[in-house]
Amino acid sequence: MNTASSSPSSPSSTSGTTLTTALEMSAVRKVYTMGDGSEVVALDHATLTLASDEMVALVGPSGSGKTTLCSIAGGILSATEGRIVVGGEDISGHSAKELTKFRQNKVGFVFQSVNLVPFLNARENLLVVDELGKRTGAPARARADQLLEELGLADRAKNLPSQLSGGQRQRVAIGRALMNDPSLVLFDEPTSALDTKLGEQVMELIRNEMKSRGRAAIVVTHDERITHYCDRSVHIVDGRLEA
Amino acid sequence: MKLALKELRRRPGRFATATVILTLIAILLMFLGGLLDGLIASSTGAIRAQDADAIVYSDTAQASFVRSRIDPELRAQVEAVDGVTEVGGIGNVQLGARVPGNGPRDLASVALFGYELAPTGVPDAPAYGQAWADETIKASGVEEGMIIEVGPARSPIEIIGFVEDTNFNGQSSLWASPDTWRDVLSANRPDAQLGPDVFQALIVRGDGANLPDAIDAATAGATDSYTVDEAVAAIPGVTEQQNTFNQIIGVTVVIALVVIGLFFALLTVERTSLYGVLKALGAKSSTIFAGLVAQAVVVTAIAALIAGTLVVILDLVLPAGSIPLLITPGRIILSVLLLLVAAVLGCSFSLRRVLRIDPASAIGTTS
């Protein structure tokens, strides 16, 4: 058995108005061809389904394929084979251009070192998503203000990242990930740079934000201590998923 | 692009080095262009001012007044050409002039013309012994009504007024009657003296296509005729000056291009991680590259604006006639356009790097 994981949810419906699954990955493989012609299998027949409000911890050691799976689910990398459906959109055969548009509309990212744009204030960091994508203007500004309010950052909206604490920066990054109202949010090692206490606070925040909004999330981590904040854990070893 | 412009506004210090270097390059570019224009203007004004459809020299003159002779017979042949309506003789002699109040060795360089048909901006030929002078001679202390002594024979010429932009070979021009010119020539350059009614060249007005060719055909090759533009370019040394300066200007533009290219290539390398994140968030490579170009264009435009202002101030504070600097809006606009083209081309060095930034680099890395 080289694939694993299951979901309590049923398959997605692209025709209905409500989607019960945020992510469906079926037998997804990612193979890299090296300079000498040899092949490295980074992801081996991975099958994973996430309900629309489910939070999954993706746990594994370095080099196990966590990043590859996360990148494929987020439309950053294309799979060598297999089927990937995110928020009802089958991205398996998407071109690079289509994947760019998909990322603008369907997924949110929170990167390992937060990676806010250093010369933009908190509010503008949220608005970057709209600027790079739909450019809706006023509705985007209203949404950014609302998210900052909900994340407890209303009074920090004009602050640059350098003027914010680590936790506040993490919250801005979460706000940015939610700006496009994504079907799936991908958290890349959100606690790796934080001490235990702040790490727990951040995971609490992530869980609250995802659950209150009914959003699905994959939390990539190698830290088993934070997995209990998620609905379930999926382990990955040598590119293979294990329940 | 909005993002890129915000970065420029919020982090101006980051672009200060490039702006300063580009400002210096822009000053150099505009200054070189101004010198070229000044040199060419001071060498060609007398020809550019001619209201002529053809300027006729003798066949072996190579567009040089000194080497050219047009006798009355040849002139008659030119006058007989179909389409020719007016013909006027013109001649020139270049000498040093003693100016009252100046030391005996402090000579003003003058190019004295004798003319029959008045150039644009120059009144009809004055009485014998008088001349209109180009205003640049004022820098030598010459005033209206002053009598200057021209050449080793100290031929007296009374300055009765001033005209503009009529210099020749970098010397202030004097516009006199043909008799004045012929006598000054005889007195000061006996080897080059000319008989009565002999001129060095002809100013021809008329209609009909390609009058210079028609004239040369009618004289069976005894003349060498030019349009005004051709005659300007044919003045000995003008094309060489233009080529030399244009090559220096070209090298300066290439230096600007390399400076911009290197600066933005370095910025791109520094921003690889940020661009990776933006791409992961859905930014297209074209959006990122457009931002880079916008920054380069704005930095260059600011540098050009500062340089343009400084060069205009320099032009105002330099004493008139000290160096042949001519700053025109056209030259400044041309310099700005060249720099902007260099900015866009310089940025294109970074295009491949921007295209190659992988959004996947944003995931699984700590910076």
Task: Walk me through the structure.
The complex is a heterodimer of chains A (243) and B (367). Chain A has 243 residues and is of the alpha/beta class. Chain A has six helices and ten strands. In chain A, the strands form two sheets. A six-stranded mixed beta sheet of chain A has the order 6-7-8-3-9-10. In chain A, strands 2-1-4-5 form a four-stranded antiparallel beta sheet. Chain A is globular, with a radius of gyration of 18 Å. Residues 1-17 of chain A have low confidence and may be disordered. Chain B has 367 residues and is an alpha+beta fold. Chain B has a six-stranded mixed beta barrel. In chain B, strand 5 (147-150) and strand 6 form a beta hairpin. Chain B starts with a helix and ends in an 11-residue tail after the last helix. The mean pLDDT of chain B is 91. Chain A binds chain B through residues 66-67, 70-71, 74, 76-77, 97, 100-101, 103-105, 109, 111-113, 115, 117-120, 124, 128-129, 131-133, 176, 180, 186, 188-189, 192-193, and chain B through 2-3, 6-7, 10-11, 273-274, 277-284, 287, 359-360, 362-367.
Secondary structure blueprint with pairings:
The complex is a heterodimer of chains A (243) and B (367).
Chain A: E1 21-33, E2 39-51, E3 55-59, H1 66-73, E4 81-86, E5 89-90, H2 96-106, E6 107-110, H3 122-132, H4 138-150, H5 166-178, E7 184-188, H6 196-213, E8 216-221, E9 232-237, E10 240-242
Parallel strand pairs in A: 3-8, 3-9, 6-7, 7-8
Antiparallel strand pairs in A: 1-2, 1-4, 4-5, 9-10
Helix pairs in contact in A: 3-4, 3-5, 5-6
Chain B: H1 2-10, H2 16-48, E1 54-58, H3 72-79, E2 84-98, E3 108-115, E4 130-134, E5 147-150, E6 155-163, E7 172-176, H4 178-188, E8 201-206, H5 211-218, E9 223-226, H6 228-234, H7 238-270, H8 272-280, H9 285-317, H10 329-348, H11 351-356
Helix pairs in contact in B: 1-9, 2-7, 2-9, 2-10, 7-10, 9-10
